Amino acid sequence: MASIPVLAADHPSAEVVAALERDGCVVVTGVLGAEPPEAIARELGPHLEKADIKTSLNEKYAADGGPSDFYPGNTRRITALAAKSEAFRALVTHPLMLAACDSILKPNCASYQVHATSALVVGPGATVQMLHREEDSFQFFKVPRPNLVLASMWAISEFTAANGGTHLVPGSHRWSGDRVARADEVVSAAMPAGSVLLWMGGTLHGAGANVSDGWRFGVFLSYSLGWLRQEENQYVDTPLELARTMPKQLRDLLGYKMHSALGFMDAQPRQGRPE
Asked: What does the alpha-carbon distance between residue 171 and residue 85 come to, in Å, rounded to a whole number?
């Protein structure tokens, strides 16, 4: 039966990368103490309270050519997390994530970037999400594609099979595009709060159904090759006034950096422009 490898935070990052390359996914426990998840929940709470828990997002997604039922209801979703939460920004530059990106993405680019961010609070009655790949936006590459994206889900609360823990298909990052996952190949990621689930851009995955009576809170963070267009326009979501207060490493990861000749901007000094 398929399974998701689980490693403790004190394991070398090389072992995390080896699990990713072998199985396409890995859970690392004990990455965060109690304080970071609490801070993220506190900072994102006011934004999540305003989020629509219905399926209205599907209408916009379908209008852009996506499936009409991609986003299950009974879920609060927000994006632009780097602009909304200082505690979240520490996840972007977490040594484990950068080590994984260096190994998985760096061979195919000069530098990588944040691809997308979102906070997902999945409520009772939320239905299962269709299996998909993070890199599916880049259809001109045939499956299995080169390593384009690396994704993660940070457990702000506990993840279980009952409360909608992320579904993954270990090994599917090596499959051809016409292979369909059997039910016994789909595994639910269970992990305590403070853990992180990482998966390759080619790994089939999707949110699980929440059949419990509690809410499951996770924070999604993905990275992509620096020469690809970001799924979420980070440098638009993060205003210049805020970006210039951030460390250069974080600012670069959000997109305030050229990749070879890509991404240049007017070099003339302007008020509010990061230096």
From this structure: 34
Beta bridge partners of 151: 199, 222
Instruction: Using a cut of 0.85, tell me whether the model's pTM lies above it.
Output: yes
Check which CATH number belongs to the domain holding 166 and give it.
2.60.120.620
Identify residue 22 by its one-letter amino acid code.
Answer: R
Q: How far is the C-alpha of 212 from the C-alpha of 200, rounded, in Å? A: 28
For residues 25 and 203, the answer to whether their CB atoms sit within 8 Å is yes
**Inter-CA distances, 115 with 72, 177, 202, 232, Å:** 22, 23, 15, 6
Task: Give residue 59's pLDDT band: very low, low, confident or very high (50, 70, 90).
Answer: low
User: What are the angstrom distances between the C-alpha of 175 and each of 60, 138, 185, 225, 250?
Assistant: 30, 16, 13, 21, 34
Which sign, positive or negative, has the C-alpha torsion 231, 19, 188, 38?
negative
- Rounded to whole angstroms, the Cα distance separating 5 from 151 reads 16
Read off the pLDDT of residues 193-250 as tens digits, 9 standing for 90 and up: 999 999 999 999 999 999 999 999 999 999 999 999 999 999 899 988 999 999 999 9
In a domain, 66, yes or no: yes
| Cα gap 157→218, rounded to integer Å | 7
Q: How many domains does the chain have?
A: 1
| Domain containing residue 168 | 6-254
Q: Tell me the per-residue pLDDT of 131-184, one tens digit each, with 9 for 90 and over.
A: 999 999 999 999 999 999 999 999 999 999 999 999 999 999 999 999 999 999
- Burial pattern 233-269, b for ≥16 Cβ within 10 A else e, equals ebbebbeeeebeebeeebbbbbbbbebeeeeeeeeee
